[in-house]
Amino acid sequence: MNTQYFDGLIVGGGLVGAAMALSLAEQGKHIALLEPSPPSLDLQSTDKHWDARIYAISPSNEAFLRSLQAWPEAQRTQSVLKMDVQGDAGGRIEFDAQAIHTPHLTSIVENRWLLQALWQRLHAYCNVTIFAHTATTLTQEIDAISLHLDNGDILSAPLLMAADGANSWVRSQTDIHTDSKPYHHHGIVANYQVQKPHGATARQWFKDGDVLAYLPLPEQQISIVWSSHQAQALMALSDAEFAEQVAAQGEHSLGKLTPIGKRFAFELILRRPANMYAPRIALLGDAAHTIHPLAGQGVNLGFGDVQALSQLLRLAKDWGSLKTLRSYEAQRLHAVRSMQMGCDGLFHLFKPQNTPLSWVRNSGLNMVNQLSGLKNHLIRQAMGL
Ligand SMILES: Cc1cc2nc3c(=O)[nH]c(=O)nc-3n(C[C@H](O)[C@H](O)[C@H](O)COP(=O)(O)OP(=O)(O)OC[C@H]3O[C@@H](n4cnc5c(N)ncnc54)[C@H](O)[C@@H]3O)c2cc1C
């Protein structure tokens, strides 16, 4: 069987793997991208329905995606100008783009349109070879790593980048130990037409241990993410009944909610692989970390991985050397762990059994809200500015 040689192999062509492939293709490198289910490229701009899976992309990651010319058209994005976070006993913190002299705090985009934008650019490069297959085995040599595909092909390169998601097959082939902690919550996502203007404001409520976010979409619509311990009961409700629950949990701030499209639930798990690399393997995106969605940082962390690794590989002589892989981990692990701990800490701080902490957590929010210097520093950090 013939072996095909590349500068790098990428397993998984989701947002993170596709961005990695594009970034390396731009450097003129020969890349093999393994993705068993490549996305459809014929989305209709007339399709008014917004994807229920949406992301709040930080300005620094937006700039990166724009530099790759992989940013959805303007009518499929929504700028967020303000954020309003409310605790469970009168605590409140508000952020405003104007206060930190930035055009917007974050941008909302849909999963399938961002994926399409990335894949459309990928198809423009002849140095990226796409394999719509899975690998059956992985073999390590001293200076290379090889994948044996289910169609008999063998691909080899000095480095394998694993972007194959939370249950990464590549990671399972290594001896990297993964610490997995279920939150016993599911995230429910759905979209609504709202009665009152949302004012380009992202709203969030911490209530009874649940976390609900309203994210603005164009044309007086919103997307919601509800992290709940009673997701099974909520998913059993009719669309109209669930919409009423969402409106009540959000204090009827936007009036009546009319459902658009389907709702989905996904299990929330904190995953912390002990390392972000194994010999000749780098983990990226959800393969390297998963996080509670309360700060909307899941995919942002993944794009951070891509930028760091891509920058390192630009200068590295041997892409898969221990030195390169250690540098990658050194650059990313602290940022990833800090964000994981921050979101995990907030989630537990607002759990209902923490009632003695109720005063502390709510006054804390109010106190930070008064300290504009600290508040603006925090939001700038979250935005990657
Ligand atoms: C329903 C839902 C809603 C979400 N909402 C939000 C949100 O609002 N905000 C947010 O920040 N995050 C959200 N997330 C998390 C976010 O989707 C992830 O952080 C992000 O998609 C990670 O991207 P990724 O490319 O690393 O992994 P994935 O998107 O999981 O992509 C992995 C890719 O690898 C491919 N693959 C899998 N196995 C193999 C294999 N063996 N060989 C080859 N390829 C393989 C898959 O087909 C897939 O294309 C949500 C997740 C879900 C499931």
From TrEMBL:
Belongs to the UbiH/COQ6 family. It comes from the Bacteria. GO terms for molecular function: monooxygenase activity. This is FAD-dependent monooxygenase. InterPro entries: FAD-bd (IPR002938), FAD/NAD-bd_sf (IPR036188), Ubi_Hdrlase_CS (IPR018168), UbiH/COQ6 (IPR010971), UbiH/COQ6_monooxygenase (IPR051205). Its cofactor is FAD. SUPFAM superfamilies: FAD/NAD(P)-binding domain. Residues 8-339 form the FAD-binding domain. Signal peptide: none annotated. It comes from Vitreoscilla stercoraria. Keywords: FAD, Flavoprotein, Monooxygenase, Oxidoreductase. It holds the Pfam family FAD_binding_3. Pathway: Cofactor biosynthesis; ubiquinone biosynthesis.
